[in-house]
Amino acid sequence: MNTVKPESIALFCLTPGGVLLAKRLAAMLPVTCFTSEKLLEEGFLPFENGFANAARDAFANYSALIFIGATGIAVRVLAPLVNDKFCDPAVVVIDERAQHVISLLSGHAGGANTLARYLAGMLGADPVITTATDVNDMAALDTLAFQLNARMTDFRSVVKIVNQMLVSNKRVGLWWDDELAQDVSHCDRRGFITVTDLNQLPELDALICITLRTDLPELPLPHWKLVPQRVVAGIGCRRDTPFPLLAELLSRQLEAQRLDPLALKAIGSITLKKDEQGLIQLASCCRVPFETFTADALREHEHRFPASSFVRKTVGTGSVSGPAAWLLSHGQLLGETLREQGVTITLGVSH
């Protein structure tokens, strides 16, 4: 999944008019501008081994690409690289007179639609958006998922089903847990029908449930869970604790709080554990970052938790899992700490 980051936008221009427009854009937002040797100006980088190679390299290393010129040129250069709308970078094309800003590739997942609208607003141009949900003035499930930083089982197939239902004027409901109301309030929900009570459903063809919960009540229609990544886990363990044990205990701790494993956002521990293979494998398996904190940073919060003099002597702080979860969640902890077989796990929730 791509997220457009302003600091990782590559811009390509091939004509004097394109260079002038690129300079306008570079003055308004952070972009890395590429052009040919003969058009090179201060602040621009030359194409390495030609335009096509430079563009293909940027496709693999930038979150978004802007081409100033003909759409066909961008298509021909990038066509062999296009792989997956959930992974490919956003690609936007602007004519050198800045009349049109075209969202060409990864409109939803990559953020090209948002970027095209933003650039068009800056330039006073017309944004050209062709995705079906957008032209029908509706939200899209994949856009909603990225706005919420949420995951879903069988995400690709469900996105296709639900977005097709939306543009076919089917009635798709949207329900969310009360604790997620503030997050959802900032999302684009056009086309979805708000559901406030799962026990009193309006007439619907399908339902999306935004929740951190493991289980939902039985529902009499097709429905899918969209799970925001909000849960963090601080973990302390002995050296060389095996991955299967860590995975089993984390699963048990999540289940005890009735939390869907997809809600996991990050795993944290002490810096001394940055090379701990069991923790690294656990984070990789859960598809979340593994973040570490220095003993000094953890020690600032160890007074909030039961401390061990042995642990303090060994790693420099009397508690690891609690302070790590505290830092990851900004103090929003969930339930009791699990302590078993030399492993401690503390959960928190981060909004």
UniProtKB/TrEMBL annotation:
<feature type="domain" description="CobE/GbiG C-terminal">
    <location>
        <begin position="231"/>
        <end position="347"/>
    </location>
</feature>
<dbReference type="Pfam" id="PF11761">
    <property type="entry name" value="CbiG_mid"/>
</dbReference>
<dbReference type="Pfam" id="PF11760">
    <property type="entry name" value="CbiG_N"/>
</dbReference>
<dbReference type="InterPro" id="IPR021745">
    <property type="entry name" value="CbiG_mid"/>
</dbReference>
<protein>
    <submittedName>
        <fullName>Cobalt-precorrin 5A hydrolase</fullName>
        <ecNumber>3.7.1.12</ecNumber>
    </submittedName>
</protein>
<feature type="domain" description="Cobalamin biosynthesis central region">
    <location>
        <begin position="140"/>
        <end position="217"/>
    </location>
</feature>
<dbReference type="InterPro" id="IPR038029">
    <property type="entry name" value="GbiG_N_sf"/>
</dbReference>
<dbReference type="InterPro" id="IPR002750">
    <property type="entry name" value="CobE/GbiG_C"/>
</dbReference>
<dbReference type="InterPro" id="IPR021744">
    <property type="entry name" value="CbiG_N"/>
</dbReference>
<dbReference type="Pfam" id="PF01890">
    <property type="entry name" value="CbiG_C"/>
</dbReference>
<dbReference type="InterPro" id="IPR052553">
    <property type="entry name" value="CbiG_hydrolase"/>
</dbReference>
<dbReference type="GO" id="GO:0043779">
    <property type="term" value="F:cobalt-precorrin-5A acetaldehyde-lyase activity"/>
</dbReference>
<feature type="domain" description="Cobalamin synthesis G N-terminal">
    <location>
        <begin position="55"/>
        <end position="134"/>
    </location>
</feature>
<dbReference type="InterPro" id="IPR036518">
    <property type="entry name" value="CobE/GbiG_C_sf"/>
</dbReference>
<keyword id="KW-0378">Hydrolase</keyword>
